[in-house]
Amino acid sequence: xxxxxxxxxxxxxxxxxxxxxxxxxxxxxxxxxxxxxxxxxxxxxxxxxxxxxxxxxxxxxxxxxxxxxxxxxxxxxxxxxxxxxxxxxxxxxxxxxxxxxxxxxxxxxxxxxxxxxxxxxx
Length: 122
Hints:
With 122 residues, the chain is α+β, with helices and mostly antiparallel strands. The protein has helices spanning 2-44, 49-59, and strands at 65-71, 74-82, 92-100.
């Protein structure tokens, strides 16, 4: 019985460590998805690129890289992070989100802040 336990115990420990690492990678993946979406929403509101990166980094895993590109009326935010714990592996988590730029005109133009069916002024 002792010989079997000596063989099985390291395998079980390695399996448990692999499960924990997998959970950490999935958590980082979800954080990257959330960060890319938050950044794309901010970029769609035509916020400056620095503000978009700051919004995305607030949600992204520590040390993540954020890039923002505009292609016509589309905005693409890409969030990349290294895999947690085993940083030496050539493995990274990458997510991107794309959004269409919104028209953020003034209230007089009927943009953000305008209330449908109400007239402005006396």
